[in-house]
Amino acid sequence: MDPHLLTTFVTVARHGSFSAAAAELGYTQSAISQQIAALEADLGLVLLGRRPVEPTPAGRRLLEHAEPLLLRLRAARADVLRAAALPRHRLRLAATPLAVNAVVAARLARARAQQPRLDVTLVTCGREQVAALVAEGEADLGLADGIAAPSDPLRLPDTGPMTTVGIAEEDLVVALPGDHPLAGRAALRLADLVDARWLQTPLCPLARLRDLVGDGFPAALEYQGDDVHTLLNLVAAGHGLTLLPSSALPAGAAARGVPLASPRLVHRVELLHGALPPGSAADLARTLSA
Amino acid sequence: MDPHLLTTFVTVARHGSFSAAAAELGYTQSAISQQIAALEADLGLVLLGRRPVEPTPAGRRLLEHAEPLLLRLRAARADVLRAAALPRHRLRLAATPLAVNAVVAARLARARAQQPRLDVTLVTCGREQVAALVAEGEADLGLADGIAAPSDPLRLPDTGPMTTVGIAEEDLVVALPGDHPLAGRAALRLADLVDARWLQTPLCPLARLRDLVGDGFPAALEYQGDDVHTLLNLVAAGHGLTLLPSSALPAGAAARGVPLASPRLVHRVELLHGALPPGSAADLARTLSA
DNA sequence: GAGGGTCCATCAGTGTTGCTTATAGCAGGT
DNA sequence: ACCTGCTATAAGCAACACTGATGGACCCTC
């Protein structure tokens, strides 16, 4: 199965048109038609209907495999080039917003003090994007955060042989409105909040809570952003509860944070990297992991 | 990056010889030489030294990516073909030995009763092999087991879009010799067994215990087999402790099983499958998951 | 030192592949 | 009926991938 044909297939399926895919890929319609025919002949299956150009069930299944496969191919190339590259001082660090907490920021500052020539560009994005950027060589290092049991690795998308190192863990709190009946408690258990209204957020996916505790945790509102200020305002206004790292609630915040006692969970930050030959990136990774 | 060239590269590296790789792949030495040159030109790197033919650091990095990549390509092909295939009654079920406990076996028997034409071949192998066989289409369904927190999915190798369903969970016990000082306890905590001697086994990798509890758990002996009878004899003879599902210790066994109270862990069995069009395999999967 | 064997690199020749251009057929709209 | 847009197919040609031959390097034996 040729990745070249796979790329063509994915592009055609996205556009629903041979001609449009040809334009995007810089081929003629005829070449595209022949490439799709070759892929279909190789597998002995019809992968796309014609008029309209839509994937068959088998084609849909192949599409599910194609994107991760093509990403992994890009990752392999990037990682090999990285393993052989000369050290650079200008680095890109991809991070989820909440991954750069005070501990991590302090270590970053220490790294800058130790390496005067270090030049770091910090890019924030979602957890999946962090993994992809590092894998594809678009970022030198990644920082990803999430909810996990203590010392339990985060579940990141697998993009090939990549190293993850846990670098920070912090207690979680349940963020409640200040006037919530449970706001005065010393600690809370998730099992007692099963029927409360919750916010669906990237940090606190409700499916994860259901995995840990069981059914419940209705999503009253979904917030796909990462801005803590907005999140706290949504909580304070009564839209729903969420879990946050304790340091994310400054004194005087609109919402109140009550420590989570059960199940035993933490906000965990992990460093991601591929090949790490000696140089600035390796030094930065070491300092961030210290 | 062409998978064809990758396959050649992997084969040459394995043999340490262009000529031997040529013989295995059915090409001439000249073709192999040109393929490796093409791959090196594509990446702009020397991947293999010559005389002796050994991977460079960059080549070694590429080898780490190559095997999973090639497996995923095979998996994509197999899964697409499976999605489009006609239903068959002759199925292959790949399972780790301890995954087929009494609950699972009973469900399998129920499936056979419900589908008189069902013909299942059960193949036992290691956890990684289960995932690979299912991914590559060599098995229709897989059953894998391991130690996990309740409701926490097992960590299986990622071979592409595959579905895993937890189908059984069972308490774990610490297997001790009958005359062990702790054998009479009602329950045990792992933290109290940190300095005991342990067996390194596929089911109970000591690295996992260290992740959960911390340093310790010295490996007194490694047993790579899966035979519970042998394992119990090793325990009874004082070679070391291990964790086993409670049902694995029959009455009168040579070793004694004491329930594990902390941390909260279970023996978990999961069903693995790729594309599952309507038919015997889908019916079997449904019955096994019930 | 001479001779022989093994192994990889490179060249020339040849069949295969992958692209472009041209054309045919189909569907939908006016 | 005519026009437009779209995909399939055929023919032509450059590029690619393989084989067979050859050269050079290295090692071993006499």
Structure characterization notes:
Two copies of one chain form a homodimer. With 290 residues, chain A is α/β, with parallel strands linked by helices. Chain A has two domains: 3-83, Winged helix-like DNA-binding domain superfamily/Winged helix DNA-binding domain (Arc Repressor Mutant, subunit A, Orthogonal Bundle), CATH 1.10.10.10; 90-290, D-Maltodextrin-Binding Protein, domain 2 (3-Layer(aba) Sandwich). The first copy, chain A, is built from nine helices and ten strands. Chain A has helices at 3-15, 18-25, 29-43, 57-84, 102-114, 127-135, 206-213, 228-236, 280-289, and strands at residues 90-95, 119-124, 141-148, 163-177, 188-189, 198-200, 219-222, 242-245, 255-262, 266-273. In chain A, strands 1, 2, 3, 4, 5, 8, 9 and 10 form an eight-stranded mixed sheet that branches. In chain A, α1 crosses α4 (57-84) and α2 (18-25) crosses α3 (29-43). At the A-B interface, α4 of A face α4 of B. The first copy, chain A, binds a DNA duplex (30 and 30 nucleotides) through residues 17-19, 27-35, 37-38, 50-51, 53.
